[in-house]
């Protein structure tokens, strides 16, 4: 089933297969409706909830006279639930073609598959570069982790963790991983290119620090959706790094996947953004992320993070003292609503914090600050961002201002490292790669026709 729905080329070929069969003419319509009905329920496609939803959907369509033959539809629905077409598909020549694509997908990925352009930023283990896939023209951001740095600072588990989480998450509010490969010196994660760059660059480097209400509201709402997606997969994010023009949560190096109902331990996060319970060595859950959202909304509004003045960098112990004991200040830049939202997210006691009182993200989304946001439209990607990046500009610091990244001397890489590298470098991520070549295919067909 998942081959026919989740993998874009598998899906396309399955559609073609259905069109080639008289008895399956309307079948893909149904399949399409099923996948439209939302990813969260799709994993359990036989659940009665979906069944009811589809029927409801169809009745509405029928009412709108968009559907002519309801009995044929119900026949297809039964067929769908029996799973027969999927089995027939796997015996057809369309599936052989799919397997040929899969063979291509499994070809080794090396640096020669990409062109490298400019430096976009620097992280803890290496640089992030703009790059382009030679064969398709698709632009991505390549996050490189220097092998010697990873080894010196024992970052193996963290790197693998980030890669595996990115691979598993499929959300429009989180950066996607398209390829994972290695060069002689680096481990590379090829990620969705975010043309607007880092949100903090916009808060601090363009005009007066801070953003106008409309943007704060839009970004906060999208971060909220992204956090909800992560939390649904039992992932706590534990950072506050987001990229635009639409929001995508990035840098999942600190994210952690929790087994059902378990809590996280460990003082993990960025100085100044860690929640009081994280600093206080208490076990914690998603509450840490809602605190992080509070910090981000505060920062977008005030043009400075909570509990420190602009340009001030208190020592970690002092920053921790303030987070645990002091209340943040609200100047007149904060409207009544936004002040209420920030102070509920920045409640020191996680039990009293907005987002942590039972209903999770929906509690945050229901706050009056978001009353102008249509979250269903936002989730569907049908709301235009308030700020569109100028395609001629690059929204990050000058290349000269990004410090150079050098390799650590004296670190010797050996066989055990090789084992880790092969776990990390799994090549193309099916969903992403198939989308990429699929797009290319359509462009070619379009050009031919015109
Ligand atoms: P680290 O985990 O080492 O901190 P990050 O993932 O935060 O590294 O990346 C470092 C910087 O690179 C970011 O602050 C951002 O400016 C830039 N960057 C990272 N990913 C992307 C991307 N997908 N698109 C554009 N810029 C990016
Ligand atoms: Mg970072």
From TrEMBL:
Pfam families: Pkinase (PF00069)
Record's protein name: G protein-coupled receptor kinase
Family: Belongs to the protein kinase superfamily. AGC Ser/Thr protein kinase family. GPRK subfamily.
E.C. number: 2.7.11.-
Gene Ontology MF term list: ATP binding; rhodopsin kinase activity
Keyword terms: ATP-binding, Kinase, Nucleotide-binding, Phosphoprotein, Serine/threonine-protein kinase, Transferase
Domain spans labelled AGC-kinase C-terminal: 371-436
A biological process term (GO) from this entry: regulation of signal transduction
GO (cellular component) term, any one: cytoplasm
Organism: Periophthalmus magnuspinnatus
UniProt keyword Phosphoprotein present: yes
Domain Protein kinase: residue ranges: 114-370
Superkingdom of this protein's organism: Eukaryota
Alphabetical list of Gene3D superfamilies matching this protein: Phosphorylase Kinase, domain 1, Regulator of G-protein Signalling 4, domain 2, Transferase(Phosphotransferase) domain 1
EC category name: transferase
PROSITE patterns: AGC_KINASE_CTER (PS51285), PROTEIN_KINASE_ATP (PS00107), PROTEIN_KINASE_DOM (PS50011)
Residues the record lists as binding ATP: 143
Classification via PANTHER family: G PROTEIN-COUPLED RECEPTOR KINASE, G PROTEIN-COUPLED RECEPTOR KINASE/RIBOSOMAL PROTEIN S6 KINASE
Ribosomal protein in keyword set: no
